[in-house]
Amino acid sequence: MDDRNKTDGQKGSGTPEISDAELSGRLEGLGAELKKVRAERKMDEVSSVADRTSTSAGMALAFRLGAEFVAGVLVGAGLGWGFDRLLGTTPWGFIVFLLLGFGASIMNMMRAAGETGRKTPS
């Protein structure tokens, strides 16, 4: 029983007496681990915010491209229908301007997608 560490004066407690230096060392170690965990959590939060930002930016671009496509086709169809009514060339004006609207909307989509490809994140 002599090989036991000193106790705080109570027999049979079995808890060794810990010096202030040991406690300070443990506290510093726990503080360092806590800083490390907090830094990891902060990095996770930053990456999740960046993920949400890129997702919302992608959705905004998709809606913009979709709206430009639909608008181009509808404007072409409307102009073709109008010319057909004025000139009496029924379906040809509609067909020609519908195809022109489709081509214009594809060009607008490619231009808009090319602009976003050249931007660098700040």
UniProtKB/TrEMBL annotation:
One of its GO terms (cellular component) is proton-transporting ATP synthase complex. InterPro entries: Atp1_alphaprobac, ATPase_put. The keyword Ion transport applies. Pfam families: ATPase_gene1. Residues 1-22 are annotated as: Disordered. The chain crosses the membrane at residues 61-83, 89-110. Keywords: Hydrogen ion transport, Ion transport, Membrane, Transmembrane, Transmembrane helix, Transport. One of its GO terms (biological process) is proton transmembrane transport. The keyword Membrane applies. A possible function for this protein is to guide the assembly of the membrane sector of the ATPase enzyme complex. Belongs to the bacterial AtpI family. This is ATP synthase protein I. It comes from Ancylobacter pratisalsi. The lineage of its organism: Bacteria, Pseudomonadati, Pseudomonadota, Alphaproteobacteria, Hyphomicrobiales.
